[in-house]
Amino acid sequence: MTAMHTSEDELEAVLAASWEAFEVWSASTAQRRAAALTEIAARLDAAADDLVPIALRETNLDEARLRSEVSRTTFQLRLFAEVVREGAYLDPRIDHADATWQAGAGRPDIRRALEPLGPVLVFTASNFPFAFSVAGGDTASALASGCSVVVKAHSGHPELSRATAEVVSAALDLVQAPAGLFSLVFGTETGRTALTDPRVRAGSFTGSIQGGRALFDLANSRPDPIPFFAEMGSINPTFVTRAADRRRGEQIAEGFLASMTLGSGQFCTKPGLLALPRGSQTLARLRSLTRPATGRLLNERLREGYLRTLGDLVARPEIEVIGERARAFSDPPEPIILMSDVAHAIRDPESLLIECFGPASLVVLYDHEDELLALARTLDGQLTATIHAESEDDVTELIRLLARRSGRLLWNQWPTGVAVTYAQQHGGPYPATTVAGSTSVGTAAIGRFLRPVAYQGFPDERLPPALKEGNPLRLSRRVDGALQI
Amino acid sequence: MTAMHTSEDELEAVLAASWEAFEVWSASTAQRRAAALTEIAARLDAAADDLVPIALRETNLDEARLRSEVSRTTFQLRLFAEVVREGAYLDPRIDHADATWQAGAGRPDIRRALEPLGPVLVFTASNFPFAFSVAGGDTASALASGCSVVVKAHSGHPELSRATAEVVSAALDLVQAPAGLFSLVFGTETGRTALTDPRVRAGSFTGSIQGGRALFDLANSRPDPIPFFAEMGSINPTFVTRAADRRRGEQIAEGFLASMTLGSGQFCTKPGLLALPRGSQTLARLRSLTRPATGRLLNERLREGYLRTLGDLVARPEIEVIGERARAFSDPPEPIILMSDVAHAIRDPESLLIECFGPASLVVLYDHEDELLALARTLDGQLTATIHAESEDDVTELIRLLARRSGRLLWNQWPTGVAVTYAQQHGGPYPATTVAGSTSVGTAAIGRFLRPVAYQGFPDERLPPALKEGNPLRLSRRVDGALQI
Questions:
Q1: In chain A, what are the helix, strand and coil shares in percent, each to the nearest 5?
Q2: CA separation, residue B62 to residues B54, B56, B59, B126, B263 (Å)
Q3: Which candidate from A400, A453, A456 shows the least CB-CB separation from B413?
Q4: What residues have CB less than 8 Å from B173, skipping those under 6 apart?
Q5: What is the ipTM for the molecules in this complex?
Q6: Tell me, what's the pLDDT at A168?
Q7: Which residue, A111, A346, A387, A466, is CA-closest to B424?
Q8: Burial B420-438 (b: 16+ CB within 10 A, else e)
Q9: Is the pTM of this model over 0.90?
């Protein structure tokens, strides 16, 4: 795999090795998996000076951002190591045999815990070349859970992908992980071929709705469909009440502008829709604020897509541009804010409420706060939804409507910056993702590559360690229905 | 809906009411949902004398079995009520804001818990007219989790479906649940139309691979795909070591015959494949045992399918019939045991290792125990896999291989009889189910109709009760990474 292309023979070797490595890795101890994750983290931190310059060349992102992304990536790997050591993610449940159970029907001894799915195919993202790429969240959670990993490199940063993969592989060699546990492949067709291979047991993706849906459909078209976790599009609506607008208009305008232009607006959590009252303080301030300079877009393909979507939007009669229009189409693009009415957005959401991946957002104006509820009802699945309100506002119904439609709700904050924590939820109903029950950020992400297996009537010495009577791993478990820490 | 047919207008009314009921029910307290479940259970128990005779007429199942199934069904409803009252199924996680988190990048206050998906469409099973039908497991877990339910009645027991639905509705009226929370519809096309309706947010199914796959494909073909939990086919392989065969051949033969003929072999966990050593004691005993009388099959459609599959199998040159063949094709059918070699099964698994839904199973003979590993590697996804072995047997690799391919492993027991418990897992890799991470029996089944929602930076009074700082619901929660009971 010296060239940026993977041949059919090379892919066959990768998949065969990945399956064999899975057989070994799935039976490895938590200590061993944790050690591998921390070793990868240490080596990535040590290699940052080599990797960041490659990323600078390939992505148009700036150095400070890239360095902080490396740090986020290695933090994530180490956090998964902790999750693995703790072991509660296995959700171990033990029911002792009980002849009195179910009105005398009785129950046998049954013990259940989660086990890894198998080789995982990870389609990486363009906009986070470290944190959602070769050594990113999906790779970390797959390795943590006992799966092997085949990464399909993003065409936007092939050199960085290869260099990162070398660091990961060296770390895995050092901890004597099985050969083939982690591999990198190149090419769109290679990715599609791998996704339909029977040895691949799950897939994940971060990118556009079009790309994610095509792969989701492919995964489901298999003779044996596999879970496919695609994180796709979101306009991340923000709702500002009249009271909040009046009291904190300046602050909201500044926060919004900063959030929508972060990373040149190429975040999946960019606030792409801002609902404001007519006569808004926030809007007045937005008109006068100096727009921050944004960097060039990640690559030419994304730039073309952005300019096409933006061009369609500004051409619509119900949309007005705040400020100057021309420089939004230059390279690098200047941030651009579009404006329309809530009523228009509700009438034609498929044209107006669309993701525009770059430094553009749409402000929609309302006359009555009831229109916010109607707007919320118009929305499809979102990664995030944000409310800016004051303590006297009655937004109970708005919160309820938005909770139905999104994975994360924010109160008087901004959705960009997805912290890697225990309670994080980065997901949401379709089209935000294809699996609303899953997250791609945070410790709960380890669940996506696992499934439950129950053992009935097994002698103690034949049980997996997590389910043995004496609890040798000292796990929190549910025993006869009661949680035990 | 007086006739056994649901018109388009009736379906529209059902779905509109289901959506409205969901809006109310999803915000209901745990107490209210638990009360509804226990009321349904009480009314079903009280109505057993009316319902069982209808089931007798429609299903060919006997009274003792049907009465015990009612009891299982109401036990299940009451157990879900307990799960709801306990509340740990919400998996509440609280991360307090922490500026030192992630090497100073910091984290905001984020709190996450599971919330219900929306109206659920339940396609019921033919073989458990109570426990996997109108008031069965999926209805119980959907109502428990805060979803509304539309049940598509099985054509095999329409009168019973209607009578059961009346009992459920009366119970829900009594506890003043919202109108439309639970509905029954009839007709294959009605089911397909409902599954593609945007108001339906999840589906479940129990039945054949063909039927389940068609609905799974339909659910995924939607503009907004929804989770579809189909529990389908499984041959539930059983592996007997030479030592176990020698020591307990008689007992294994008796256990196998009892398990494979239970419910006339119409259980999704029927042991359909039994691997025995050549010269087997078990086989000798099987040849001499009197076959138990089995009842008529559930309905004419299933009987035709069974006879067709069985006919194909007995016509194969590599298959021998143990005992008499003719009465296996009579009505009611006599149990039939087929015999072949492990080598044949491995050579042509698609012809030989298929589910035959009725009182028929295939015995395959091996010369060396290594063949058991090869046979295990041949298997696709299974609900269960069973090992009969002795303490001196080395079956570590066999256990590992079977754990990869099934949802539940049994040791010296039989797979029929799926106890409703905390640790139960009734599921498995495709084609056993379409979602290997889920179960349709046991308390973990409540998870299938839920998804996580995170709240970031919310004032305490705006948070759902499960996530409030003071823990008013007294739930087990994960706070700043640590489990707290």
A1: 45, 20, 40
A2: 11, 6, 9, 14, 9
A3: A456
A4: none
A5: 0.98
A6: 98
A7: A111
A8: bbbbbbbbbbbbbbbbbbb
A9: yes
Asked if the Cβ–Cβ distance from B431 to A224 is below 8 Å, we say yes
Per the CB < 8 A criterion, the answer to whether B260 and B359 are in contact is yes
B147 is a catalytic site residue: no
Across the interface, of A111, A381, A451, the residue whose CB is closest to B423 is: A111
Question: Would you call B409 and A483 a contact, using CB atoms and an 8 Å cutoff?
Answer: no
The residues, any chain, with a CB within 8 Å of residue A16's CB and separated by 6 or more, are: A180, A199
Where does the pLDDT of residue B237 fall: very low under 50, low under 70, confident under 90, or very high at 90 and above? very high
**Is B268 an annotated catalytic residue?**
yes
The pLDDT value given to residue A485: 86
Write out the catalytic residue numbers of A: 231, 268
Q: Are B228 and B194 in contact (CB under 8 A)?
A: no
Which two structure tokens, joined as six digits, stand for B418? Answer: 């799926």
Which are the contacts of A474, defined by CB distance < 8 A and separation ≥ 6? none
Q: Which long-range contacts (CB under 8 A, 24 or more apart) does B303-308 make?
A: B303/B331, B303/B333, B303/B358, B305/B208, B305/B357, B306/B333, B306/B356, B306/B357, B306/B358, B306/B360, B307/B333
- Segment holding B237, helix H or strand E: strand B237-240
For chain B, what percentages of helix, strand and coil (3-state, to nearest 5) are there? 45, 20, 40
Contact yes or no for A253/A261 (Cβ under 8 A): no
Does residue A455 contact residue A467 with C-beta atoms inside 8 Å? yes
Give chain B's mean pLDDT.
Answer: 97
**Alpha carbon A279 to chain centroid distance?**
37
> What is residue A4's predicted lDDT score, i.e. its pLDDT?
84
Helices (H) and strands (E) in chain B, counts: 14, 17
The pLDDT tens digits for A274-306 are 999 999 999 999 999 999 999 999 999 999 999
Asked if the Cβ–Cβ distance from B429 to A225 is below 8 Å, we say no
Task: Calculate the CA dihedral of residues B114, B117, B119, B124 and round it to 10 degrees.
Answer: -80
Cα–Cα distance measured from residue A342 to residue B419, given in angstroms and rounded to the nearest whole number: 53
A8-25 helix and A188-195 helix, angle to the nearest 10 degrees: 50
Contact A451, A91 (CB under 8 A): no
User: Using an 8 Å Cβ cutoff, are A357 and A265 in contact?
Assistant: yes
- At position A354, the amino acid (one-letter code) is I
H or E element in which residue A77 lies: helix A63-86
Q: In what order do the strands lie in the sheet with B228-231?
A: B182-185, B149-152, B120-123, B202-206, B228-231
CA–CA min distance B440, chain A (Å) = 12
Within 8 A by CB and 6+ apart from B396, the residues are none
Classified as helix, coil or strand, A130 is coil
| Separation between Cα atoms, residue B163 and residue A257, nearest integer Å | 60
The overall average pLDDT reported for chain A is 97
**Cα separation, A423 vs B114, whole angstroms:** 11
A352-369 b/e (C-beta count within 10 Å ≥ 16 → b) = bbbbbbbbbbbbbbbeeb
